[in-house]
Design brief:
This protein is α/β, with parallel strands linked by helices and about 375 residues long. The chain folds into three domains: about 15-85; about 125-170, no CATH class; about 180-365, 3-Layer(aba) Sandwich (Rossmann fold). It has helices spanning about 10-15, 20-35, 40-50, 60-70, 90-110, 145-155, 200-215, 250-265, 295-310, 325-340, 350-365, and strands at about 75, 85, 125-130, 170, 180-185, 220-225, 230-235, 270-275, 280-285, 285-290, 315-320, 340-345. Strands 7-6-5-8-11-12 form a six-stranded mixed sheet, with helices on both faces. The longest helix is centred in the N-terminal third of the chain and has 21 residues, at about 90-110.
Length: about 375
Amino acid sequence: MRLRYLDWDPARHGSQKPLFEELMDLFEKLLEYAAGDAEEALDWLRQLDEQHDLTAGHDEDLDDFIEELKKRGYLEEDEETGQMQITAQAERSLRQSALEEIFGELRKHGDGDHRTPYKGKNNERRPETRDWQFGDDVSQLDMTGTLSNSFRRSGVGDDWHLSEDDFQVHETDHRATMATVLMVDLSHSMVLYGEDRITPARRVAMGLSELIMTKYPKDTLDIVAFGNDAWEIEVEDLPYLDVGPYHTNTRAGLQRARNILHRRNNRNKQIFMITDGKPSCHIENGQMYRNAYGLDRKIVNKVLDEAVVCRRQDITITTFMIARDPGLQNFVRKLTEANRGRAYYAQLDDLGSFLFEDYVRNRRKHVR
């Protein structure tokens, strides 16, 4: 009898994942769209179960899944309202899922080389070796090369010994540390025009923060949300980011980001800005000046001035534009020219890969 092995096809053969993992994947997706609102996500999950019988063929039902979420520390009841809310463990799980989804796609095309072309002290060995110098890390000692030098110099008899000139060490890659501010546009246009732009922006912010905290722990990431004004938020706030009835104060966002980077000791500094629209307001003499119709030169010029200040302070701005309007793209081009930065006119489903790849590559490009 001949056997023919095929790739597993979930559509034909069913999923290989346990029921809890399948439901957890779905629940996390719903949490992303619900901006971290556990009650709303659970309500959507119940509706899906009623329509598609998600637990068919299993001994457990949806109530068992919710109880398991509580036992595993993903859900808890609010003491005041009695409503379900996600925990810090669930927030971390959302960041990890975003990282795996976005960075996994990037790995298919190669996740890049994070090293710089410069040599320095680190624990990432290169095959090349050199003579030992005072202060070199002994953990990078090339034992084979060191012993070979000694044998060539003194032979293998009773007179064999090591001298300082025999020691060889491996060259190491120098990894540049990076200070990054991620700016996320929370203006009302992020949910207008029939497109949900805030959900992918939120997912990217969660994934990038997890990437930096786990893979590049010496780098720093600060996050700035901007609408009518700009304010700093914590990593723990990311799952709950949502748009408001805001205009777009790009100038305030850049100013807040620049002030943050000024406090950072890293030599390499950059701003990633995710936005879908034109600047439509700024604060002047304590009052808001706004114009939601067209590109107001008074507002635009203030933003371009801020881009020049960033350039003079060696802060590169990378803009991820998620709108296709030619007028808005022209504004982004002017912003990029003023800063000598970079711009991507990204699709919503490619935004994460663009940002991750840019982040990884420019950790070495910014070395001075």
